[in-house]
Each structure stands twice: as C-alpha cells, then as structure tokens.
Amino acid sequence: MKTIGELKLETDVPVVITDQQGFITYINDCFTSIFGWSEAEITGQMITIIIPMGFHDPHHLGFSRFLSTHKSTILNHPLQLKAITKDGREIASEHLLMAEQEQGQWFFAATLRPL
C-alpha cells in the first residue's frame, strides 16, 4: 500500500493521482506497465489525457460541481469505465475514485483495475 495523505492505495493495480486542477501528480509502476505512459510523459498532463473524448464534458462538469459543493455520488464506489493507453487503445477498467483535502487543496486518486 502507498499512502498519499490519508489515502491508502493498492500498488498492485494502476493508480493515478491529480491535484484539484486536474493535473496528474503521480502514477505507480503498475499504471506504467498497463497503460504505457512513463511518469515523465504523463506527470503534469491533464487527467483528460486518459479519459475517452466522449467523457470529457461529464468529467469537467462533475469535477467542477464537486469543487463547488464538496459532494459527490461517485466517490468511493466502483465504476466500470474506460481509460486511454499511450497508444490510444481504450481499456475497460473498474475505477475507484477517492478525494482528500489537505491544507485547503483537494487531491484525487483513482485505482484503474483492468476488466
């Protein structure tokens, strides 16, 4: 397990963490192995780089709503979604999204267990 603040994350599944602006701040080795992105290539990129184009608008809406209200219906519930690999393939995966606030800033983490 890796601990990011109070978030305890499995390391045997792909993990990605973003800041509250949606910039990727961390990926684990399992993410690199399955999705093909190196840490240097993806750190600092917007999370939408791994979200299929058709889900960009719903993602932005939900992200903005959460930052305004601090309420969510999708956090801590497994979701079957897709994520984009470096070579453009879509991988179906079970996403578990978590959020934590530290010193007034939100951080978001997701595990992306391939299906």
TrEMBL record:
The lineage of its organism: Bacteria, Bacillati, Cyanobacteriota, Cyanophyceae, Leptolyngbyales. PROSITE patterns: PAS. It holds the Pfam family PAS. Residues 1-45 form the PAS domain. This is Diguanylate cyclase. Signal peptide: none annotated. GO terms for biological process: regulation of DNA-templated transcription.
